[in-house]
Design goal:
Layout: H1 13-25, E1 29-34, E2 39-44, E3 53-56, H2 59-74, H3 86-105
Antiparallel strand pairs: 1-2, 2-3
Length: 120
């Protein structure tokens, strides 16, 4: 008797298609969908100060996070006033960007590097 192969299943076809579309549209990001975690992921594929890994439950949420990161890292910091040195303005801008990235990148209850949801 010859063994028969089970039909191959394609899990979360729509979500994977959405991730592929985002991956094509955002050239500086690697975007994918984790069928196990059921989350969308984006990894910055351009020079950034630190690892930029985003995750979201919908493609729209992920795209919004990607846009926020791009804007935070590419838009010039606020013009320094007469009372603020350029170095202080840079530090303040960097710390705000770091704080907002931390809020977006880490799921609630998971600290960076502690395991958490490892994705697909």
């Amino acid at each position: 008797m010859t063994p028969t192969l089970a039909p191959r299943r394609s899990w979360d076809r729509r979500a994977r298609a959405e991730a592929e579309q985002l991956d094509r549209e955002w050239k500086d990001w690697a975007v994918f969908y984790g069928t196990h975690s059921r989350l969308f992921y984006a990894i910055a594929a351009w020079p950034v100060p630190g690892p930029e890994i985003l995750r979201a439950s919908t493609a729209d949420d992920l795209e919004a996070q990607m846009y926020e990161v791009v804007m935070a890292l590419t838009v010039q910091p606020e013009a320094a006033t007469a009372h603020t040195s350029p170095e202080r303005a840079r530090r303040r801008s960097r710390s705000r960007a770091d704080d907002s990235r931390e809020r977006r990148c880490e799921p609630s209850g998971t600290a960076r590097g502690t395991g958490g949801d490892r994705g697909p």
